[in-house]
Amino acid sequence: MNYTGVATLPTSTPSAALAPHADTDPDTDPETNTGIGTGIGKIDKVDIAVIGAGQAGLAAAFHLQRVGYRPDRDFVVLDHSPRPGGAWQFRWPSLTYGKVHGMHALPGMELIGADPGRPSSEVIGAYFESYEQTFGLRVHRPVSVLAVREGEDGRLLVESSEGRYATRALINATGTWDRPFWPRFPGQETFGGRQLHSSQYEGPEQFRGARVVVVGGGTSAVQQLLEIAPVAAATTWVTRRPPVFREGPFGEEEGRAAVALVEERVRQGLPPRSVVSVTGLPMTEAIRRGRESGVLERLPLFERITPTGVVWTDGQRVEADVILYATGFRAAIDHLAPLKLREPGGGIRMAGTRTLRDPRVHLVGYGPSASTIGANRAGRAAARDIRQLLASARPNRALSPPPQPPPSPPLTTTPSPSR
Questions:
Q1: pTM for this one?
Q2: 384 and 61 in contact (C-beta within 8 Å)?
Q3: Distance CA 67, CA 78 (A)
Q4: Rounded to an integer, what distance in angstroms lies between the CA atom of residue 252 and that of residue 260?
């Protein structure tokens, strides 16, 4: 049985209404404006607006600076999260840095020597914070972008809780965390226990002594199931498709093949699958033990939910106190709806990072660039593409010389917590 679903905001996502950003650049540009973020009622003009300051947004901001654009003069970075760290700041405390799969460093500054036993939310949050400060990226937060629509004089109008920005180009790097996918099943509303999404997972203790059904075949499902099993009364793992466990190293050739599968869907104008969904689950020692113990013995998707559990088409039943949906996320791009970028298939067709329906709009961290290394590359590609676009539209525009790399060494050991 295939399920359909809807997306809702997790309870941990902040609502943002903020006074204008206080730490603005004192320099002004007579052609663009008299300053950035100086009043809710006015419209600030910038060359580029970057929406989102996770991995993709910070990479894009870094590369914009490298090609000569200045933060808070030529471009502005808006982020609705309460602090640096992107989606990582919301990860559950028991997901330590040592358990993280494939965290790729941001461009220009490595993260080395971090304590593997420390929560990943703290390690990566502090790393992102240090990165923003080192390169002077001047991220405005918490700022919620409400809509992006056509403006005047060929500009896009970004409407936000901080005010309005008229921009010549846009880099959207909003990721997926704000749109957890909730599947829908017959009888779901009758269930007498708890139902929650993996984005609301806070650790195994909330499942102690409970009978738990975990729905989903991704990395989060496996990690959370392995944590829950030792304290729960019973666990049942349910997936729509049989999980694929990947043995051995995952090299560049395998990575290119996985990205190509995601790119093909984007070319067809279909909603992208995540890169992780086509790479399979890495066979770690913890996963190997979970399979041997039976914790990771998977059952196919059930047919319906009852007041006391779940039922399959053959009559099999499992009683449950909690259903945990580790069913992933969808791209958080509803604010772009006024631009009508979607194809009939529901996705957005792109050439590289540029949307085909509007060359001013670039998506990074979307589809094939949704991995951490892909986000870095997409940020660089978007910055170069936009520079060419704006230079051709206004060839006499003078840019600042690219900044020199920071003299400070890579961030090492354990940075100070950001939460």
A1: 0.78
A2: no
A3: 20
A4: 12
